[in-house]
Design brief:
The complex is a heterodimer of chains A (about 260) and B (about 400). Chain A has 7 helices and 15 strands. By secondary structure, chain A is α/β, with parallel strands linked by helices. Chain A has one domain: 3-Layer(aba) Sandwich (Rossmann fold). Chain A has a 9-stranded mixed β-sheet, sandwiched between helices. In chain A, helix 2 packs across helix 5. Chain B is α/β, with parallel strands linked by helices and about 400 residues long. Chain B folds into 3 domains: about 55 residues, 2-Layer Sandwich (Alpha-Beta Plaits); about 200 residues, HUPs (Rossmann fold, 3-Layer(aba) Sandwich); about 120 residues, Rossmann fold, CATH 3.40.50.1220. In chain B, about 25% of the residues lie in helices and about 25% in strands. Chain B has 11 helices and 20 strands. In chain B, helix 5 crosses helix 6 and helix 8 packs parallel to helix 11. The chains are: A alpha/beta (about 260), B alpha/beta (about 400). At the A-B interface, strand 3, helix 3, helix 4, strand 9 and strand 10 of A face helix 5, helix 6, strand 9, strand 11 and strand 12 of B.
Chain lengths: ~260, ~400
């Protein structure tokens, strides 16, 4: 039996996030919470491995508030075997370091991993740091920014992004792989029947004690980075408005381009 | 942080051969670790057959007075054209320019960290960008890039020379390496910064967009050193700053090739994309949904050609099928900073704006006088995007012709 872990996160749908123009704060109310798309893709990739290798058990694991159960349920409905939610006030305020630590402690506690699949980054933070962080904690190899993965006996083969193309790489197991997503990939959603069936599967809730985490290394206390200020993106330029007829506007654009040597 | 050898050590010596720092020796058939050489890189832990070596990484309140200087990881091409092999990437100069400012504010040195396979004489290039000191590790194992090998070397340099700040490019390589290093060292790392500064306490203030660019956050890593950050390419301005004398430190680090676990089987180069080099373009002609149809959008290619520029697009234009996604500018596309950015019929979703607002000159054309794109534009032309693009092409032809 091979143990595959997929690490997932519930995120606000950032395309729906709006800013309150008066206060400059995020309006979170009414913003749907979704499974981070890269994690969703990671789940899909893990399930593909299971299709070809029946001797695979997939555990999805997430850290978050109790309502993050819903994304675990989604992963279960898509076909994952077991769900774990790390939920504890002690985890609150964890940065990527503390999150990697907590997830790796939980993985070690649950089962000896053969493969850990993560989305390359979450769309609310865009850090791409948790996958490599887990690999570092577990002291196993990492392959980041992959579009495709395949299991070959005790090796993982991956198609990984590099600057000007791809590398096909292979790594011994266990390892951590982080998934980007091919362009135009359509993420699948489960049927109502699958959702209903999955809702019967139990989701294991784990707290800091359950995973044997050092309380000094989790939550705000364990996080090396601290958010010191949040503010709306600043407007820095003085805008000159051109409200003339199209022809005059074009003359004006040409004049600007001439003056600044964009055309000779 | 600490490392410990448990009593179940069987004296197999596997750890001795794999340790890159010669920190382990066998005494009475047990592994003994020399803590003055050990960097807690974990190479030994992964080869021990009986799990007898344990590393604990804990919080330690250190005295930071020994941590100084601003380090920049120099990235060069190792994956493109063989002719370009070893060419320093533009983002490295951006980081040095920004690093110079930080070093001046701290009254410390700017240091370039170069890990290369052979001597490439980078000092002649780097001294034009204000570098005071270079740390060079030359070893054939540095190519091709490998996470574990680079991590081992970078950690060895950090542990020996103790930088206060360490900047990496937010590229595939930098975003692979920096989090591994920071996780091993237990230090803070802020991803994809778009602004850096030093506050009154002398800490690095790391600014970055979050929630798809809808909001900015300032991040500090006050309690641990080095303060690490990855910096988004094409955001920081390149400023030349010539230094006559660059101190060069060549560091010999023994690398056991067996640390390399991930093997490259095959390398696939992207099909030629010579027509699109958005990230390096001097002039970008970009279009949005306001261009209305695919056919209308296509006149932007003609305009771009007249201006020797590249065509960009908003996500809305890509989603509407006007143009391929590889032209997309913004959060989920390419971040650009051309000398001139022309935005035709782009309303200016925040995700787009974060990807182009550092352009030197922005001229936006939009029907809606309240379009958010105007907020970051130097010139806001109110009118029909297609109509103006078309007339502009005619005028330019006249002008050139």
């Amino acid at each position: 039996m091979k143990n595959i872990f997929v690490c997932i996160k519930q995120v606000p749908d950032s395309t729906e996030v709006k800013i309150n123009p008066k206060t400059g704060t995020l309006i979170r109310q009414g913003v749907p919470a979704i499974l981070n798309p890269y994690d969703h893709f990671a789940v899909v990739c893990a399930l593909k491995l299971k299709e070809k290798n029946p001797q695979v058990s997939i555990s999805v694991i997430s850290m978050g508030p109790p309502q993050a159960k819903s994304v675990i349920q989604l992963a279960l409905a898509l076909g994952c075997d077991k769900g774990y939610l790390l939920s504890d006030a002690a985890f609150a305020g964890s940065d990527t370091w503390a999150t990697s630590y907590a997830l790796s402690m939980a993985i070690k506690k649950i089962a000896k991993p053969d493969l850990i699949v993560c989305g390359m980054q979450a769309i609310d933070g865009d850090t791409a740091q948790v996958g490599p962080g887990i690999a570092a904690q577990l002291e196993i190899p990492q392959i980041t920014f992959c579009d495709e993965i395949e299991l070959d006996n005790n090796k993982l083969i991956a198609k990984k992004h590099i600057d000007d193309g791809y590398d096909i790489v292979e790594s011994p197991l266990p390892c951590v792989v982080t998934m980007s997503m091919p362009k135009d990939f359509e993420l699948p959603f489960p049927s109502f029947v699958d959702i209903a069936e999955a809702s019967l599967k139990e989701i294991n809730i784990l707290n800091a004690k359950d995973i044997g985490a050092d309380e000094n290394l989790i939550g705000l206390k364990g996080s090396p980075t601290q958010v010191s200020r949040i503010y709306p993106p600043q407007k820095e330029v003085k805008t000159v408005y051109v409200k003339s007829s199209p022809l005059e506007a074009v003359e004006k654009i040409i004049e600007i381009m001439k003056n600044e040597n964009f055309i000779r | 942080m600490g490392i410990e050898v448990l009593n179940n050590c069987i004296g197999c010596s596997k750890c001795v051969t794999v340790c890159p720092f010669e920190a382990i020796s066998m005494v009475n058939r047990k592994a003994v670790i020399d803590l003055t050489k050990c960097t807690l890189c974990g190479s030994c832990v992964s080869v021990c057959p009986v799990k007898a070596i344990v590393i604990t990484r804990e919080v330690s309140k250190k005295d930071f007075s020994s941590y100084k200087d601003v380090w920049v990881f120099i990235e060069f091409l190792d994956d493109a054209d063989p002719l370009k092999q070893g060419e320093i990437k533009k983002v490295s100069f951006e980081l040095l320019s920004e690093g110079r400012k930080l070093a001046d504010k701290l009254n410390q040195k700017l240091c370039a960290v170069v890990l290369s396979d052979i001597n490439r004489g980078y000092e002649n290039i780097l001294k034009e960008y204000g570098v005071d000191k270079m740390y060079i590790v030359e070893n054939k194992e540095m190519l091709p890039y490998d996470t574990d090998i680079y991590t081992t070397v970078i950690m060895a340099l950090i542990n020996k020379y103790k930088p206060s700040i360490f900047l990496f490019p937010a590229t595939y390589k930098g975003r692979d390496l920096a989090p591994r290093v920071s996780a091993n060292l237990y230090v803070g790392l802020t991803a994809d910064c778009t602004g850096l500064d030093i506050n009154n306490d002398g800490f690095l203030v790391q600014s970055r967009p979050a929630f798809g660019g809808n909001i900015m956050a300032d991040i500090l890593s006050p309690n641990l050193r080095p303060q690490m950050a990855t910096v988004r390419p094409n955001v920081m301005k390149i400023v030349k700053n010539y230094k006559e004398n660059v101190e060069i430190i060549k560091e010999e680090i023994k690398i056991n090739p067996s640390i390399r676990k991930v093997k490259i089987v095959k390398r696939i180069k992207n099909p030629s994309t010579s027509s699109i080099k958005l990230e390096n373009a001097e002039i970008i002609v970009s279009g949005g949904r306001g261009m209305k149809t695919k056919e209308r959008f296509e006149i932007l290619f003609e305009l771009a050609k007249l201006l020797d520029g590249c065509v960009g697009a908003s996500r809305a234009a890509v989603d509407s099928g006007f143009i391929d996604k590889k032209h997309q500018v913004g959060q989920s596309g390419t971040t650009v900073n051309p000398r001139l950015y022309l935005a035709f019929g782009i309303s200016g979703a925040v995700q787009h704006i974060v990807g182009m607002k550092s352009s030197d000159r922005i001229i936006a054309i939009n029907k809606d006088p309240n379009a958010p794109i105007f907020g970051v534009s130097h010139y806001a032309v109110i009118g029909d995007a297609y109509d103006i693009a078309k007339k502009l092409i005619e005028k330019l032809k006249e002008y050139k012709g």
